[in-house]
Specification:
The protein has one helix and eleven strands, in the order ββββββαβββββ. By secondary structure, it is mostly beta strands. An eight-stranded antiparallel barrel has the order 1-4-5-7-8-9-10-11. Strand 2 and strand 3 form a beta hairpin. The chain is elongated, with a radius of gyration of 17 Å. The two termini are about 15 Å apart.
C-alpha cells in the first residue's frame, strides 16, 4: 500500500507524560493542544514521515499553580519557546506492528535525536465508512538535555523533580480524502 496523509482525531488521541516527584512518587500530566502531520502506510511505517508540534501552554497536571510555574522561564519559558516539536528521521520495524521511530526533538531551544517505541494498534472503517488507524508510542527524554534544570534539593537527600520524563502518546488518525 502507498503512503497516504492521515489527520489526527484529537477526541481519541492524547500526549501524556510522567515525572518523578520528591524521588518517591510520580506526577502525571497531559498536553491538550498538539498538531501532527503523518504521511504513512499504517501497515508499514518504515517509509512514513511523521511530525508533531505540542503547544506547551496547554500543559495540565491538575494543579493550576504548578502548570503556571511550568510555563515560566524556570521551565518551558513558553514566551520564548512555545512548542515542543518532533520530526521523524528514521523508522525501523522491530517486530510485528512494532517500530523504533527516531527523530529530532526540539524543546527549549535545543534539538536532539530521540527514539520512541511505536505500536500499530490496527486499522478499520468507522460506522460512516472513514478509514481509521491507531498507534501507541512511548519513550523518555532527560529534561536536563534540553536545558530544563530547575530543581530543589531535599533535606532528606535527592531532588524535588526527576530528570527523566516518560512520554506516552495514543493517536487515532483518519485517512485524508
Amino acid at each position: 500500500m502507498a503512503n497516504s496523509k492521515w489527520i489526527v482525531d484529537f477526541t481519541h488521541s492524547s500526549v501524556d507524560f510522567t515525572i518523578k516527584h520528591m524521588m518517591i512518587a510520580k506526577v502525571k500530566g497531559t498536553f491538550h493542544k498538539f498538531e501532527a502531520e503523518i504521511d504513512a502506510d499504517p501497515a508499514d511505517l518504515t517509509t512514513a514521515a511523521i511530525s508533531f508540534a505540542v503547544d506547551l501552554s496547554s500543559i495540565d497536571t491538575r494543579n493550576a499553580d504548578r502548570d503556571n510555574h511550568l510555563r515560566t522561564g524556570d521551565f518551558f519559558d513558553i514566551a520564548q519557546f512555545p512548542e515542543l516539536t518532533f520530526k521523524s528521521t528514521n523508522i525501523v520495524k522491530t517486530d510485528d506492528d512494532e517500530y523504533e521511530v527516531t527523530g529530532d526533538v526540539s524543546l527549549h531551544g535545543v534539538t536532539r535525536s530521540e527514539t520512541f517505541s511505536v505500536t500499530f494498534e490496527g486499522a478499520g472503517k468507522d460506522p460512516w465508512g472513514n478509514e481509521k488507524a491507531g498507534f501507541s508510542g512511548k519513550g523518555s527524554i532527560k529534561r536536563s538535555d534540553y536545558g530544563l534544570t530547575y530543581n530543589a534539593a531535599l533535606e532528606t537527600g535527592g531532588v524535588l523533580i526527576g530528570d527523566e520524563v516518560k512520554i506516552s502518546i495514543e493517536i487515532e488518525v483518519g485517512k485524508q480524502a
